[in-house]
Design goal:
The chain has nine helices and 28 strands. It has helices at about 15-20, 30-40, 85, 180-190, 230-240, 255-265, 285-290, 355-375, 430, and strands at about 45-50, 60, 65, 75, 80, 95-105, 120, 135, 145-150, 160, 170-175, 195-200, 205-210, 215, 225, 245-250, 270-275, 295-300, 300-305, 305-310, 350, 385-390, 395, 400-410, 415-420, 435-440, 445-450, 455-460. The structure holds ligand LQZAQKY5 and molybdate ion. Catalyzes the insertion of molybdate into adenylated molybdopterin with the concomitant release of AMP.
């Protein structure tokens, strides 16, 4: 990229003077940033997926029943298969005793013909033997095995489940576009399908950046804190339906991060980074990604979550196309190299702010809808409700605010109050754990008072 500052392996090596000279990036609204994100995130191409792995995926084909469901007439009760005419007059005062000619368990292929005056013991799910036209549950008998005494007269076709009453062979049991939740997975299985064409779950690498970060539980010296963002974001990816690959925390070192991104790019659909996107001296994510020209960094008019980066990791061009791979910007300086087409588009990259509440809000507002678009979901957004403010707060002018709130019921009313004692501070990660929603305050509001109505995104 001519004129772009060349990334270096040093921690502090990128050219701050060049950054200062770069034209200021205009602030986007949340809607503008979301539109830019969604325009770049496409549904993943469908693949064959085993029913073991389809939960939450979107079906890309209709599923037809291979056979009738149920496939054969069968018993709905543990009891006796009878000719109803034989026991029509049965009652406690008029018991009728019949010989038991067979014992039919679920799974049996036997089909003993039930002659008049005979019966077979039968279990739930076993095929109805020819000749029988009703089932007497064991509760209406003495449960005999050689002979059985029946004291209850069955109704017509009592306790018989008919072949095809659920679906006929060839019926469409699921339509393309259906989200495969457990009951639909059961419908596919009962239709005789073990593998379906579905849009796969996006594989999402989650990386925290910051030399201050340690693994939770490890001892910390002054200046260090546990990495909570990689756990937050990996769990949020899974909850959104993606497959998280939690890399953990990497230090503020450009070469380390560049090599990591380059190696991950081959195997993931998205990369979610946190930290290092603001204007600090060691903002490693921005230092590595901004010079590539494929990731845009700029402020979004929201609080928290102001500094955002979004774009794509540039993949090596297809060598058959005669071009040279150069994702890291350091392998090829040959100006005569012919640009080629990438073999596949690189993963989309979300560079989220490091403050934990900022990272979380950014995930909810931008990453989650994007992942759901990649999954083929049409319900991209969380549901919202209107709630009454129980304890007011302030909001910065010119920025849409996403306040983590606790949602309570008070009779007919739904009440909200800030989840963290400190309010909207983007470092208040412990308080964030109390939140069950995000109250959305418009750019023009600066004071949210007790009794006001607010829109609340339900997050759990
Ligand atoms: N002079 C300015 N300073 C800052 C501005 C600004 O406009 N001008 N913006 C502020 C805002 S708003 C935010 S948000 C942050 C974003 O900064 P970064 O994305 O560069 O994030 P870091 O500086 O790396 O970290 C910020 C904060 O979060 C903590 N952190 C980072 N990663 C994790 C993690 N994985 N787990 C837990 N906590 C994490 C980090 O220690 C810092 O305290 O910039 C403001 N500054
Ligand atoms: O915009 Mo920052 O994300 O407030 O903390």
């Amino acid at each position: 990229m001519p004129g772009a500052p060349r990334p270096t392996g040093d921690t502090h090596g990128h050219d701050r003077a060049a950054d200062a000279c770069a034209p200021p990036v205009s602030a986007r609204t949340v809607a503008e940033q979301l539109a830019a994100v969604l325009a770049e995130c496409h549904v993943l191409a469908p693949t064959q997926v085993s029913l073991d792995d389809v939960r939450g995926l979107v079906l890309a084909e209709d599923i037809h029943s291979a056979t009738a469901t149920p496939p054969f007439d069968n018993s709905a009760m543990d009891g006796y298969a009878v000719r109803r005419a034989d026991v029509l007059l049965a009652s406690p005062t008029n018991p009728i005793t019949l010989p038991v000619i067979a014992d039919l368990a679920a799974g049996t292929a036997e089909n003993p013909f039930i002659e008049p005056g005979r019966t077979a013991r039968i279990m739930t799910g076993a095929p109805l033997p020819d000749g029988a036209d009703a089932i007497v549950p064991i509760e209406g008998t003495d449960q005999g095995t050689e002979w059985v005494t029946i004291t209850v007269a069955p109704k017509e076709h009592a306790h018989i489940r008919r072949a095809g009453e659920d679906a006929h062979a060839g019926d469409t049991v699921l339509h393309a576009g259906s989200v495969l939740w457990p009951t639909r997975i059961a419908a596919a299985a009962s239709a005789g399908t073990s593998v379906v064409l579905a849009h796969p779950a996006p594989r999402v690498a989650v990386i925290s950046t910051g030399s201050e970060l340690v693994t939770p539980g490890d001892s910390t010296r002054r200046g260090q804190i546990p990495d909570s963002n990689s756990f937050l974001l990996a769990a949020a990816v899974a909850e959104a339906g993606g497959i998280p690959i939690r890399v953990g925390a990497v230090p503020d070192d450009e070469r380390t991060l560049r090599e990591l991104l380059s190696s991950l790019a081959e195997t993931v659909d998205a990369i979610v980074l946190s930290g290092g996107v603001s204007v600090g001296a060691y903002d490693v994510v921005k230092a590595v990604l901004a010079p590539l020209g494929t990731v845009r960094f700029g402020p979004v008019k929201m609080q928290p979550g102001k500094p955002q980066g979004f774009g794509r990791w540039p993949m090596p061009a297809d060598s058959a196309n005669g071009s040279a791979p150069d994702p890291a910007g350091e392998l090829n300086d040959d100006p005569s190299a012919t640009p080629g087409r990438p073999a596949r588009p690189g993963p989309v990259i979300f560079a989220l702010p490091g403050n934990p509440v900022s990272a979380y809000v950014s995930f909810e507002v931008f990453v989650r809808p994007a992942l759901r678009r990649m999954l083929g979901r049409t319900d991209l957004h969380r549901p919202t409700i209107t709630a009454t403010v129980d304890r007011g707060w302030r909001s910065p002018p010119g920025r849409a605010q996403y306040m983590p709130v606790i949602i309570d019921r008070d009779g007919e009313r739904t009440l909200v109050r800030p989840a963290a004692a400190g309010g909207s501070g983007s470092h208040l990660v412990a308080g964030l754990g109390q939140a069950t929603g995000l109250a959305i305050v418009s750019e023009s509001s600066t004071q949210i008072s007790d009794g006001d109505l607010v829109t609340v995104m339900l997050t759990s």
